[in-house]
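Table S2 (continued). Query chain:
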Amino acid sequence: MKLVRLLSTLSLVLIFSSFFSLSWAVNEIGPDKNHYLVYDYQHDWLTFSSRYKSFVPYSKGVNDSELSVSLLVDLSKYKRYDLLVWVANENYLFIEGALQQKLTADSWRTLNVDSLSRVYKKSELLLTLYGSSGIDGKKVLIGHSKKNVGTSEKKLVPGLSFINIKPIPTSPFEDYAIVVVVLILILTLFTYTSSPVTFRRFLSPKDLFDTSDRNDFYRFSKPYSRSVLLITLIVSMGLAYLILFFTHHKLDLFYKSGLLLEGETFAQLGLDQIKLTLLFIGLFFVKFIFMGVAGGVLNLENVINTHYIKSLQFSYLFYLFFILISFSLALQYPDWLEQAQSSLFYIFLIYYLIRFFLLYILLNNTGRIINLYLFSYLCVLEIIPLIIGVKYAL
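Corresponding output:
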């Protein structure tokens, strides 16, 4: 009986010792197996996205054709350890975007973490391998040298790791754009709550395309009424934002005149926004004064109020829609404006031509207006200011 117990105990000891030896053997890595595994970066690979202008997690099956893959190595977390890089095929090793070494096929490269920290004076380094496609045949490991076993206070226990991606740095213009769009939405909400009936009719296609001269909306809505003033402010803010939006994307419109500041800090953008908003508000009221002068000369006093409100409706619907579309596209496709730059002129040209002919049809509601007078009136107030504006901008 004692012999059986002794044999059983010896068997258990042999099993545990063999398991323990096997576990150490599995964790032996590096050239000549002279390191113990601390951490494997197998699931932390990143690839650069031209769409988001930043590094994103590597996706198996999607990014397998990528010749360049990267990792963010936390130096502060793995002090006194070594960074081990192995490649099955020839690759080039980059650290912080600078070429360090050409790695031959089936070779190891050992880098001391403390030395990297002293040289680069950073707690985190970007490591990139360029050469073969995908991540197959590439290993980046954190290892503990067998020579240092017993002298290091660190435990050889792999820690939990999370994908550590640097956030996309935001520019002052992006912060400014968010603030302006939010302000426009808040003003729109305030305008609606202060006069919901007027605001609903202002956005109503039925009123916009109504040719009746008995429409009370156009008879009682004055350019100096509170609702119309708020809408004028919203449209002016939208136009100012578009000018700065185009300028930010290298479509310089006003630098030659010295109206805009040269810098792009949040404060400078805010000051430019205020100046342009006040400029456009002033232009709206100057236009209304010229409407009165031209309408008096051509005996078209009855269409002045309707013309101003309808032109403001067209401007509000077109520019606010354009702003929301451009803002949404900028979030998903930052370089969309560069691709659509050549089409912008035609978009605005088509808009103003359609607006001109719609105003001509909608203002000639009774048929008693002399067509030549109305055409001349609209040319003076719609086409000539557009030509002057384009010439001034270009």
